[in-house]
Amino acid sequence: EVQLVESGGGLVQPGRSLRLSCTASGFTFGDSAMSWLRQAPGKGLEWVGFIRSKPFGGTTEYAASVKGRFSISRDDSKSIAYLQMNSLKTEDTAVYYCTRDTLYGGYCTSTSCYEGSYYYYNMDVWGQGTTVTVSS
Amino acid sequence: QPVLTQSSSASASLGSSVKLTCTLNSGHSSYIIAWHQQQPGKAPRYLMKLESSGSYNKGSGVPDRFSGSSSGADRYLTISNLQSEDEADYYCATWDSNTRVFGGGTKLTVL
């Protein structure tokens, strides 16, 4: 069964740090990009950031609202994606979700992988979420 | 940057059909989108990827009652034979320039 399980949420004071984990099972984690998203109480979904699979560079992208404060990393040997959150603000209070992102339009040669001219990352598996509360 | 526009709410009767709309802004009418469902108090669930041609690929376990279609800049999610468990928030999303964009979501009430 394909599954994502987030952990690490909790209550934290403004200005402090927290690291979330997303543990994957049931699929080849190293071949997949991963995203983090969040949902503030009573609000819609907000994309936080994304990490490509290592064959496609393992690089990251972030929403403007968290750039410079949050960072995403991955440990393919453990099938875990991380979200490191620094300098937390009260407005970061939310349920945080991770997703698997499947790439369409990418291709690999014998030496390298490329995203192609018209590529699309599709979020097709969601975790159950972990709650982060930033409050003094 | 694409912008996705959704009606804030919709309602339909048990056993009937409903068609939810996600509209892409000018210059982005060819974009692929995905539909996601979030039942009350639960995590979102992936429903389908939907292309401008109307071709769609559903996620694992998504009932046949859910289908997708497209017309110009509009992307549709049709739910047939509405069930009580279909009462949920429905979000469309797309990807562009290394950024994920969401619509505001449609709250579907099953009467």
Molecular structure report:
The complex is a heterodimer of chains A (about 140) and B (about 110). Chain A is mostly beta strands and about 140 residues long. In chain A, about 0% of the residues lie in helices and about 55% in strands. Chain A has no helices and 13 strands. In chain A, strands 2, 4, 5, 6, 9, 12 and 13 form a seven-stranded mixed sheet that branches. Chain A is elongated, with a radius of gyration of 15 Å. The model of chain A has no long low-confidence stretch (mean pLDDT about 95). The termini of chain B are far apart. In chain B, about 0% of the residues lie in helices and about 55% in strands. The model of chain B has no long low-confidence stretch (mean pLDDT about 95). Chain B has about 110 residues and is mainly beta. In chain B, the strands form two sheets. In chain B, strands 2, 4, 5, 6, 9, 10 and 11 form a seven-stranded mixed sheet that branches. Chains A and B meet through strand 5 and strand 12 of A and strand 4, strand 5, strand 9 and strand 10 of B.
Radius of gyration of chain A: 15 Å
List the total number of helices of chain A.
Answer: 0
DSSP strand (E) fraction of chain A? Answer: over 45%
End-to-end distance of chain A: 40 Å
Instruction: List the chains of the largest interface with their residue counts.
Output: A-B, 22 and 22 residues
**Average pLDDT taken over every residue of chain A:** 96
Could you describe the largest sheet of chain B, including whether it forms a barrel?
7 strands, mixed
Strands of chain B, total number: 11
Shape of chain B: globular
- Terminal Cα separation of chain B, in Å? 36 Å
Oligomer type:
heterodimer
**Count, helices of chain B:** 0
The dominant shape of chain A is: elongated
Ranges of chain A where pLDDT stays below 50 over 5 or more residues in a row are none
- Arithmetic mean of pLDDT of chain B: 97
Helix content of chain B: under 10%
Largest sheet of chain A: 7 strands, mixed
